Amino acid sequence: MERPNHLHAADQTATSRLTGMAVVIGIHVLVVLGLITALASGQIMKQIQNIQATVEREKTPPKAPPPPPPDLVKPPPPVAIVPDFQVAAEAPPPVVVAPKAPPAPPPKAVSTAPSATELKQIARTHTQPAYPTISQRLGEQGTSHLMVKVGLKGSAEECTVTTSSGSPRLDQAACEWIKAHWRWEPPTHEGQPMEISTPVNIEWNLKDAQ
Known about the structure:
Elements (H helix, E strand, L loop, with lengths): L4 H54 L61 E2 L11 H6 L3 E9 L5 E8 L4 H14 L2 E2 L2 E2 L2 E2 L2 E9 L6
Antiparallel strand pairs: 1-4, 2-3, 2-7, 5-6
């Protein structure tokens, strides 16, 4: 009795599938074997290269022959040097010349003229001027700075105000009092009296007013 057609077609399909799977598996196996073979051959080449490199490293170049020994030159024999001695003639002793004594200075001339003297004040005459009454009432005070010219007789011939006390009345009273009362011993030169100017200060203070 014959199989139906649909069963026969199913068998053919299954057979073709198995065949295709076998072909695919065989291709994969061939690829894997090819990779393994390639890797194995690469490792073998590396090992061969490593062995060659090791053999080349072990080869050492031949050593150079040692240099020939240097020629030994004998030094010349030492020559004795005889020093040349020269005896210097003795120099004559130096001639010592005694220095001449300096001439004595001429004697100083002794002056017989009397020396000059200084201005001396006669203390008893140098009294404080009287305080002007009007200045006391007005409260005037200060210091009169004066320049007094002393004549040959020792009296005040001139009186000049250099710095005012602040009150012309006090300055004038000071000059008039000095001219009338103050006296000096004038300086002398070679025994002769001389005129001279001297500064004088008169202090005006209301506490001392009488």
